[in-house]
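Researcher: Here's the sequence for the chain we discussed earlier.
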Amino acid sequence: EPAKAADQVVDSAMASSEARRRHLQQSLALTAQNPVFGVGPGMFTVAAADYAVKHQMRADWLETHNTVTQLSSETGLPGTAFYLLMVLFSITPLLSTIKRLKGVPELQELAYMASALRLSFVGTIAASLFANLAYEYYFPLLAGISVSFAWVTKNAIDNFQQSKTLQPQATVPKLI
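Model: Thanks. This is the structure I predict for it:
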């Protein structure tokens, strides 16, 4: 009985792996057929089902399990490029902020926050390789937080460095 259950688990895992491979191939084929505009946002399942019927395969009616191929098949290569540029342009200020914070130990808390944001980006990018996250809120949310954090932190670093250049004045408390 345990051996039979183990065989069922292995069979299920192999079927899932094969389905993911098939969806990847379908999404790449749909991208090649519609490179400029794609098949339309959210229309991968319909287009993949049509593709399967044309090629005498069973239609699964499932999404592709990769955000990049989801974007390329649904919005075309220009849409994919714009999306990837958005990710790049939102992580770049964060990385430069992390670099600037390395020289300011007094702002260590901000460095911790920047590192947590960077880790969030890494985790979300890794998840996007195995899930269809193109139209979810994760990347836009991280982009907004990252860009605003970089702007606020830049001002904090500039204010801190400016305050260090001012000479402190000795003051004598007045007694009434």
